[in-house]
């Protein structure tokens, strides 16, 4: 995804089942409660009062908001300096699910992995992104109070006309009203426009019902088609 490693070769931790008890399940409660969990297995710890606040971990930059097309891969970068013995975790905020703790992938989602390098970079990788991945993701360090950065993943779904819910070919007399239905899906929601293949104007009257009403005017053999207009193109 174009994110280089500062030194050496980054390692990749793939999602795999762990014998970690309840922590592998979706955890109810607030995010601070989730990351307040202490576990010797993961080295999760509280900050000692004797530690110098100036030596605490700090984020090098914010976790960005990203937009990815469904089916593509996405990478959420998180870089922390002066981590020392503290641990980094990734949490899916909307579902309050712990995804990773330190170098271990906690989630059972096989599309999620962690790219980490030199105890500094902790990048969350989402393979084959799905609509269910849309939402906020938080990278956090177990200082007290907790330090965190979060970014939003917006999943774009190209527009597609729903054929079974849209009108097919119709034959009507000149001057008659015709009701044509066109339904489409996608994210962001696509705009629907009607076009005649001969590029002639379609007369619309929406004043009476609030809904566009097409009146057939000398169409002859010309065909009218429904088009989804979307930021990424047409369908």
UniProtKB/TrEMBL annotation:
> Would the keyword Repeat turn up in this protein's UniProt record?
yes
Q: Which Gene Ontology terms of cellular component type are present?
A: neuron projection
Q: Which InterPro entries match?
A: Ig-like_dom, Ig-like_dom_sf, Ig-like_fold, Ig_sub, Ig_V-set, Neural/epithelial_adhesion
Please give the name of this protein: Ig-like domain-containing protein
Instruction: Domain (Ig-like): give its ranges.
Output: 57-154, 159-235
UniProt keyword annotations, A-Z? Disulfide bond, Immunoglobulin domain, Repeat
Q: Which SUPFAM superfamilies does its entry note?
A: Immunoglobulin
Q: Does the keyword Repeat apply?
A: yes
Q: Which domain of life is it from?
A: Eukaryota
